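User: quick one, sequence for these tokens?
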């Protein structure tokens, strides 16, 4: 908690200091109130004189008015500091989460991070607000009341001290037992958040398999577990108020009994006894409030530790010390200026290979994997083991294999979503760890397995890679991704609204929009991670033809044609690739062209046989086009693009 105050409290130092001081002034008035009441009783009521009562009442009204002003000032400062610091903590936490690598995100988990940035920060905000408003008030009021009571009469003060010791000991015992429960409650809230998130995001699957009852039971069990912990805390805490008030009223009876005797013998006045009772009541109630503050600060301490854990996490993937890579040609979409560093280097004609290789051949590999291995944290075996391959500009790499074979893990190493544990991944001749992350991910365009769009418009989703992209750039990317037809059919076109997650589009439309988003900004390496799985075969084929034509256009204009990595379980999607990588259990078991693998790789033969592809024959619905077959063809919507079959865009 103190670490967060030190890190984020600098801008609110005045509020953190002046707020408690304002509350302290209010407490001073509270401590003087019983003395003035005692004066009114002794000098006014006891002597039946109105003047002391009116004078004392006027003083009390003036003190109350001033105390209210200081209380309002304290409240405003507490609100400014708590809300301002909470906002700053959330911003820093969100920024840190976005800087974490996929490995770091896997370690924390999305539900836990969601709870930390919402519930945990709320607990810290509440603790800051209550700390300013009450942390100074109640301890000072308790101590001040004890000192004032002892100043009135030491013997009655002993009753005061004993009652405070009993109540304080009770609170210490209960709080010590409750603290572990408060810490475990936060972890159980993470579990509830996980179940709710899974149920909401997978509601269609749940309904399709009639699992509503099971999901309700899962949530009920998690809620019951959390409720059981809360009830256990409640049972322990439930004894506090009754015992506190029992001790307080027994002490009041003892004070009235002993004080009455002292009044009769003239050692005390009636007003002093009333003041003594007021001080004791204030002190014991202060202990109750202090105990409540302990509960709040215990929760906040646990939450602050969870927040600090994320803020203190050093991202496992960083680009510290990396220098910008100079690029040599603008292999961009026709009419689009290259922005490989995300901000726009001077001029449209930029270099696409490392400066230190300026004298080397322009045929620097776009992608090279050299004995690459990778294992997830805590895994017993490598998810990818000893992968080696080279992909030249304009070539296509197909990655194929069964579910869980490591295909997606392999391609996630290219843009450094994860770092290889062994070996090297090179893009344009330079190890990816030597690239600046922003520039690397501008050079590498990736379309993930899950087509994810964010709320906004089609335009706002497409310009992620290049904020300066023109409408022509966007439409060209949409045409290549076979998405232009349905976007033009929308009333607002590029400004058509997109709901959260792209729920107002079909699966195939979402995939085509995410492909178009990756093409904007003209990447030198395009990765399609099973991103055409929701497309029909005709649209899939048209997409591959359009990408091949795009590469030929770039090469014809003297620019570096983009290399393409296609991850798929369809043989038809990778058959015409210049290089096919066959994976099984994280190992590369085959590497070559389709014709070579059909003869030499048993795993590839099994995949082909399971999909009805035998040797040189491809079933009619799965025919693949190779760029060489299309050297004299043109690609335009509604035209024939192959000697073998007609493919219409869209």
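Assistant:
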């Amino acid at each position: 908690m103190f670490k967060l105050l030190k890190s984020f409290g600098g801008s609110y130092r005045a509020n953190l200091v002046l707020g408690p001081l304002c509350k302290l002034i209010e407490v001073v008035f509270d401590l003087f109130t019983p003395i003035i009441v005692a004066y009114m009783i002794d000098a006014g009521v006891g002597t039946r004189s109105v003047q002391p009562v009116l004078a004392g009442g006027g003083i009390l009204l003036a003190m109350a008015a001033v105390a209210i002003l200081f209380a309002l000032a304290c409240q405003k400062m507490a609100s400014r500091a708590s809300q301002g610091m909470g906002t700053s903590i959330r911003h820093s936490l969100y920024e840190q989460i976005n800087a974490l690598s996929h490995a770091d995100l896997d370690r924390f988990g999305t539900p836990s991070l969601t709870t930390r940035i919402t519930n945990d920060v709320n607990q810290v905000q509440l603790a800051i607000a209550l700390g300013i408003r009450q942390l100074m008030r109640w301890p000072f009021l308790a101590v001040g009341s004890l000192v004032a009571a002892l100043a009135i009469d030491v013997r009655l003060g002993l009753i005061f001290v004993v009652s405070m010791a009993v109540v304080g000991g009770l609170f210490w015992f209960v709080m010590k037992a409750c603290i572990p429960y408060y810490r475990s409650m936060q972890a159980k809230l993470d579990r509830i958040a996980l179940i709710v998130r899974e149920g909401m995001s997978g509601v269609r699957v749940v309904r399709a398999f009639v699992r509503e009852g099971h999901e309700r039971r899962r949530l009920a069990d998690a809620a019951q577990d959390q409720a059981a912990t809360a009830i256990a805390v409640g049972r322990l805490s439930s004894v506090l108020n009754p015992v506190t008030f029992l001790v307080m009223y027994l002490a009041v009876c003892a004070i009235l009994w002993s004080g009455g005797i002292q009044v009769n013998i003239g050692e005390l006045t009636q007003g002093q006894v009333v003041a003594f009772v007021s001080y004791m009541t204030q002190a014991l109630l202060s202990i109750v409030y202090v105990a409540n503050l302990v509960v709040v600060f215990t929760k906040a301490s646990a939450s602050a530790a969870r927040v600090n854990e994320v803020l203190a996490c050093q991202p496992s993937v960083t680009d510290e010390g990396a220098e910008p890579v100079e690029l040599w040609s603008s292999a961009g979409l026709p009419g689009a200026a290259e922005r490989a560093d995300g901000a726009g280097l001077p001029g449209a004609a930029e270099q696409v290979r490392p400066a230190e290789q300026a004298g080397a051949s322009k045929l620097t590999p776009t992608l090279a994997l050299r004995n690459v291995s990778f294992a997830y944290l805590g895994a017993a075996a490598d998810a990818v083991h000893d992968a080696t391959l080279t992909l030249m500009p304009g070539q296509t790499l197909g990655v194929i294999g069964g579910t869980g074979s490591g295909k997606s893990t392999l391609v996630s190493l290219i843009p450094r979503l994860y770092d290889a544990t062994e070996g090297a991944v090179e893009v344009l001749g330079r190890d990816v760890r030597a690239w600046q992350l922003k520039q690397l991910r501008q050079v590498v365009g990736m379309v993930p397995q899950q087509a994810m769009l964010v709320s906004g418009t089609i335009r706002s989703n497409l310009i992620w890679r290049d904020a300066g992209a023109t409408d022509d750039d966007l439409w060209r990317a949409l045409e290549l991704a076979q998405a232009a037809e349905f976007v033009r059919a929308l009333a607002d076109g590029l400004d058509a609204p997109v709901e959260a997650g792209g729920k107002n589009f079909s699966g195939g439309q979402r995939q085509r929009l995410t492909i178009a988003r990756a093409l904007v900004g003209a990447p030198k390496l395009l990765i399609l991670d099973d991103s055409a799985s929701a497309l029909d075969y005709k649209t899939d084929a048209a997409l591959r033809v359009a990408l091949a034509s795009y590469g030929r256009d770039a090469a014809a204009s003297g620019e570096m044609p983009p290399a393409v990595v296609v991850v798929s379980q369809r043989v038809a999607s990778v058959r015409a690739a210049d290089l096919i990588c066959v994976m099984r259990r994280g190992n590369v078991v085959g590497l070559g062209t389709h014709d070579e693998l059909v003869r030499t790789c048993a795993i590839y033969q099994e995949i082909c046989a399971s999909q009805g592809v035998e040797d040189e024959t491809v079933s009619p619905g799965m025919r693949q086009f190779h760029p060489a077959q299309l050297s004299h063809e043109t690609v335009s919507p509604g035209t024939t693009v192959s000697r073998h079959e007609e493919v219409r865009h869209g």
